[in-house]
Amino acid sequence: MTQLSASVVIVSRGRPEALGLCLTGCMQLHYDPFEIVVVADPAGVAAAQALPFASQIKIIGFDEANISLARNIGISAAAGDVVAFIDDDAVPEPTWLTHLVQAMQQNDVAVAGGFVRGRNGISYQWQGRTLDAMGDAAELPIAGMDPVVVQPTPDRVAKTEGTNMAVRRDVLVALGGFDPAYHYFLDETDLNMRLGRAGYACAIVPRAQVHHGFAANKLRRADRAPTDLFDIGASWAVFQRKFIPQEKRRDHWRALRVSERRRAVRLMVSGHIEPRAVTGLIDRLDQGYGQGISRRMGDSLVTETSNAPFKRVVPWILPAGYIMVRRSDAASARAEAARRVKNGEVVTLIILSLTALYHQARFHPGGYWEQCGGLFGKSERSQPMLRFWRFHERVVAEKARISAIRGGVG
């Protein structure tokens, strides 16, 4: 079977440093052939162009706060059979694209989504989900790590997250891409609903994993507290017009408004926002809803064929390697990890202290994966609170756990 070509589309606005980290991680993907398409504001364009591998990337300038329109520009420039999406504040595992595309190729599905790990690099933010006819999400029980194919029904479709999803390009063209009426929020939910209504099956792929940082943007602080709910209100108004019967919209909006107010009050009680911010947020939610009622929907700029030739990234060919050290050797180990990355290796550095601290993992700006924690502490959160390991035993266990996703010898 011929390997499908893939285009990775990244939209970036106001986060040039995060974009640089995301692109560094994407360059370590073990897939061939694939290309990278970046659609970014001036700061993002400058950051991408400054990277040593910039000549291998399609970089497109776009300075408008509309993620759907930006993604459509990326789709139009994408020349792959499959278009994969990842956020600029996320980093993919080296096997991410391989697992996404293989699941689509083997199961004859049009769309696939994977698992998303959170800020600590260990726990999951999102796994499998579905959407009902009202756009409400529910967990999809998944046992094991094999792909699960979800067939759409009138009442339930698969949900993918915008930071970890892939769709066949011809299907995106047929559906008109993302709807630019969603400037922010519900953009991929709308696409999921339309994919389901068109009868396309979706694969949820546990091994296709990305690490998502939830970086701050103009509408959300780094601690995830919202600073403005205007676009959320506007997006829900657009969603209602497209998917929810007229007679159900008022009750639906009332429930959403109550939910957002409760969220704001919880943030106030926890000290994340000022009391006066609660009223301001709900006022902006209402204003956005009012504007969304009249927003023009469905305008698309997706071209039937790519407007730029395929720009193949030179594939990463060396297997993943591992460095396991005690805390006292961390400085020299980091230098060694950075050196090996420059030689073309995907490197995982694990630094263990003689404690029971929970483990944290991240993609380091030096281009390697770094995991820190106690020799006796948890990595996966389902593990016992405390376990007395010998150093060599922990080395073997962590290598086996990580290599299942990252590749290399466990």
How is this structure best described in words?
- The mean pLDDT is 93.
- This protein has 3 domains: 207 residues, Spore Coat Polysaccharide Biosynthesis Protein SpsA, Chain A, CATH 3.90.550.10; 63 residues, no CATH class; 86 residues, no CATH class.
- It has 410 residues and is α/β, with parallel strands linked by helices.
- The protein is built from 11 helices and 17 strands.
- The radius of gyration is 22 Å and the shape is globular.
In short:
The chain has 410 residues and is an alpha/beta fold. Helices cover 35% and strands 21% of the residues.
Overall pLDDT confidence: 93
Structural class: alpha/beta
| Largest sheet descriptor | 10 strands, mixed
Overall tally of structural domains: 3
Helix content: 25-40%
The CATH class of the largest domain turns out to be Alpha Beta
> Which shape, going by the Cα principal axes?
globular
**Compute the gyration radius: what is it?**
22 Å
Instruction: Please give the count of helices.
Output: 11
**CATH architecture label name of the largest domain:** Alpha-Beta Complex
Tally of strands: 17
Distance between the termini: 28 Å
CATH superfamily membership of the largest domain: Spore Coat Polysaccharide Biosynthesis Protein SpsA, Chain A
CATH topology call of the largest domain = Spore Coat Polysaccharide Biosynthesis Protein SpsA, Chain A
* Order of helix and strand elements from N to C terminus: EHEHEHEEHEEEEEEEHHEHHHEHEEEH
Detail the poorly predicted runs.
none
Question: Beta-strand percentage?
Answer: 15-25%
